[in-house]
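Worked example 2:
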Amino acid sequence: MSFVADNAIRRFFIIGRIWGCVAEMIDCLFLSRSNESSRQQVRTQLMERIREISAGQKPRLAIFPEGTTSNGRGILSFKYGAFEGMTTCVQPVTLNYSNKEWGYCSVWSEVYFAYIMSLPRSKITVNILPPQSAQADDTPQTYGDRVREMMLRESSSDNKLLDFQHIHNPSRTHNHIGAILDRHT
């Protein structure tokens, strides 16, 4: 499986070089969030990748439609570009962390990587939900909203995910994510 990855990971000292090489080996698509032409290029690459996956020529592609990580307590609003051109079904998956600090940590910098490595072990439960297909009259927004609603509805009763749809997605500064989400949980 490959991923849509932030191009910034390649710039981090040592870890970025290692992860950048691994990401290239598994055929990740790289996105520069602050560059509109990069986002357009990834949209084009995504459409081509969907065709290649459908033809069995490429491995599946994991997309995180929230565009960031959260604290694992709820689902943020989706970026609908992840659903553009989706003519095939998507396989929704949720991750539940026993240690909630894992959910909003990121390896996007050495500081967060060191922080993650210092955390106690965490059990991560992967919930594979029923595949969802695009309907004939779907827009990227209606398709994404239907998948998101199903993910909320199907989350396990012992770890029910909260709906953070109407909370403005915070910046990728994870201190802000934790503070904002903690106010709403």
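The chain has a mean pLDDT of 76. Residues 65-185 form one domain.
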